[in-house]
Design a protein that fits this description.
119 residues, mainly alpha, 0% strand, 23S_rRNA_IVS_sf, 23S_rRNA-intervening_sequence
């Protein structure tokens, strides 16, 4: 096990994802500041935050539980991205980086959960 959550590649990628979501949502219309912008940012922050919190819990079982929560937040973000792509005001933006990072983080979380629950 890595010493801190900062040593986890999945946490590092989740932080990159959060920054990418912030950059993307800065381009959203101002009327979305309390709608999709806020929701997407909170979901992205939640992924990295739950990885960090889980790593500092006292047991492997707790860590896995928080990884599941992070995975759920990834699902929320995936849905919010999908919705924003359907809207005229935000559908034409470049989602390439966000999509790629989210896909990578979700695969890493899934693999980590599977690895930790096998033993």
């Amino acid at each position: 096990m890595p010493q801190t959550y900062k040593d986890l590649t999945v946490w590092q990628r989740a932080v990159e994802l959060t920054v990418a979501v912030y950059v993307l949502t800065r381009q959203f219309p101002k009327e979305e500041i309390y709608g999709l912008t806020s929701q997407m940012r909170r979901s992205a922050v939640s992924i990295a935050s739950n990885i960090a919190e889980g790593r500092y819990r006292s047991s492997r079982k707790d860590f896995v539980r928080f990884l599941h929560i992070a995975f759920g937040s990834g699902g929320e973000l995936e849905t919010q991205i999908y919705i924003s792509k359907q809207l005229n005001e935000t559908g034409t933006l470049d989602y390439t980086k966000v999509d790629s990072l989210l896909d990578e983080v979700m695969k890493m979380l899934n693999a980590m959960i599977n690895s930790l629950t096998k033993n």
